[in-house]
């Protein structure tokens, strides 16, 4: 009755079909597992609380306490003009006596409040990573400079040996 499968399938063909199905299942699983950058961005856009929770767990803010203090500013001396007294005496001139008072003002006190300084630890982490990259880059440059020096020295020695052999070869002829 079976028109398509009149013959009995061989073991090799069954094995081939099973392996093909396993290969297709493995490809489907691997392709579905690769969500990529856009998928991650879409997920974060739809679920921002996940990103916020991860950031708070991995990068908690660093808080430092800076106590307040009291600063004293010394007082100024202020000149206050006094009354003017007219004195008519035995002379024909009028004498003016002015009294000027100098007053010492009391010192001023300035109180600075206690301060809590909160630093974003994710920014500190990024800056430390950038600093590490710069340090690695500087070490690479130093290594390349030292390698360049050895390359120059070996090139100069090779040139001298070539000149020596050329001289000896020309002298033989």
TrEMBL record:
Q: Which residues cross the membrane?
A: 12-34, 149-170
List the keywords (alphabetical): Membrane, Transmembrane, Transmembrane helix
> Keyword Transmembrane, does the record have it?
yes
From what superkingdom does this record's organism come? Bacteria
PROSITE patterns for the chain: PROKAR_LIPOPROTEIN
Q: What is this protein called?
A: Uncharacterized protein
Q: Which organism is it from?
A: Pelobium manganitolerans
